[in-house]
Specification:
Number of strands of chain A: 2
Order of helices and strands of chain B: EHEEEEEHEEEEEHEEEEEHEEEE
Oligomer: heterodimer
Largest sheet of chain A: none
Strand content of chain B: over 45%
Strand content of chain A: 35-45%
Number of strands of chain B: 20
Structural class of chain A: mainly beta
Helix content of chain B: 10-25%
Number of helices of chain B: 4
Shape of chain A: rod-shaped
Shape of chain B: globular
Number of helices of chain A: 0
Helix content of chain A: under 10%
């Protein structure tokens, strides 16, 4: 099984 | 104040149609360089980034930063009234509580005017790093849409592998497996059919097809789509609008549990 990652893990809040 | 007139008005409708199922409320950030939008979907898996550059409008005037907080379902209701070849003009004050939208028929015998109520949207802005992608594929947007919808019939996820042999979209579902492989292809007479694969290193990533199929709602914007991949970073799917204006979608990958 694969787990969906969050976009927030890659792009930091600016 | 903002005043922006768009002769290719269908572009606005196509952009809204492309993103309204992914994001509901978003700010259109206007400044002197154009109108930008950045929004995440509710589950924070995908990000939409749009830029309509000032050059896409004639005239374009915006002397201050203005955020237009728009509910896209409401904007869609207004854009229903837009007809092919209409000119559309957007107007707003410096601190607006409504957006004035005018449609003019190309023969100038009909003018439709709407005021859309705006909302305060506290939106988090994300910094998108400049990325040198390991694989960049440019292909017909209809082909990409067909591959995603066909594979979605079999599975929730697709693995996209780019190697020197081509780009392979594969899926595994309850009823079996499926795969589509595209190789570099050049058609001198019909360049829009070209498949261009630029590769610096092999890539393999898995994504949710539900989101990819959603991104393909942007297909009417352009007959070409650019897909950028690097291992362990979000996928970028880009549709060019007019000139260098663009609609981009980013999608976080799925990883082994």
């Amino acid at each position: 099984t694969r787990k969906q990652q969050s976009i927030l893990g890659f792009f930091a809040k600016s | 104040m903002l005043e922006a007139r768009l002769s290719q008005s269908m572009v606005l409708k196509k952009v809204v149609d492309a993103i309204k199922d992914l994001v509901q409320d978003c700010n259109f950030d206007c400044n002197d360089s154009g109108i930008a939008l950045q929004a995440m979907d509710n589950s924070h898996v995908a990000l939409v980034s749009m830029l309509l550059k000032a050059e896409s409008f004639e005239p374009y005037r915006c002397d201050r930063n203005i955020a237009l907080g728009v509910n896209l379902v409401s904007l869609t209701k207004v854009l229903r009234a837009l007809q092919n070849d209409d000119l559309v003009t957007l107007k707003a004050d410096d601190a607006p509580d409504s957006l004035n939208i005018t449609f003019e028929s190309s023969t100038a015998d009909r003018i439709s005017e709407y005021d859309l109520k705006l909302m305060d949207i506290d939106q988090e802005h994300l910094g998108i790093p400049d990325t040198e992608y390991a694989a960049t594929v440019t292909m017909p947007s209809t082909e990409f849409k067909r591959i995603c919808t066909d594979l979605q019939a079999m599975s929730e996820s697709v693995t996209i592998e780019a190697t020197k042999d081509g780009i392979k979209f594969s899926c595994a579902g309850d009823i079996g497996n499926g795969a589509v492989t595209l190789r570099n292809y050049q058609n001198v007479e019909k360049e829009h059919l070209n498949v261009d694969i630029e590769l610096t290193e092999p890539v393999s990533l898995t994504f949710s097809l539900k989101y990819l199929v959603n991104f393909c709602k942007a297909q009417p914007l352009s007959d070409r789509v650019k897909i950028c991949l690097s291992n362990e970073v979000p996928l970028l799917v880009e549709y060019l609008i007019t000139g260098t204006s663009y609609l981009r979608f980013y999608l976080a990958p799925k990883v082994r549990d």
